[in-house]
Amino acid sequence: xxxxxxxxxxxxxxxxxxxxxxxxxxxxxxxxxxxxxxxxxxxxxxxxxxxxxxxxxxxxxxxxxxxxxxxxxxxxxxxxxxxxxxxxxxxxxxxxxxxxxxxxxxxxxxxxxxxxxxxxxxxxxxxxxxxxxxxxxxxxxxxxxxxxxxxxxxxxxxxxxxxx
Length: 164
Prior knowledge:
- Helix content is 60%, strand content 15%.
- It is built from 5 helices and 4 strands.
- It has helices at 2-7, 13-33, 67-89, 96-118, 139-163; strands at 39-43, 46-53, 121-129, 132-133.
- The chain has a 4-stranded antiparallel beta sheet with strand order 1-2-3-4.
- The longest helix is centred in the C-terminal third of the chain and has 25 residues, at 139-163.
């Protein structure tokens, strides 16, 4: 069993735990310290704003009537299971790919927890420029995005190694 955690990508699962923990901790702080829809300006382009997202990315299907809660929860659990399986398949010499997978797992579980427990995802990070606002997001979303970027980096890195 120990070999499974030292010789595969599962050795990076601590990153998923940190992403999940940091996500849930910051969401708890937001719920306890910031009123719903209250915006606190941090910089001229960044606010902390307590909002709920009943949909998926960019509030996709936010007004679908409630079924989307279970749909997105099931998708998150299935994708997390698949990514955990892929993570187990990575080898000891791989670093970027298992780090990417671990961040994606942590972020997916953070948002899935919100959906299952609350019925919505708690978002609070808002970036904007003048009247243009990026949709609110959270630490879980950031972990998923960072993981996706690392997947792309790994893809190009492996292509360069194969071409050489």
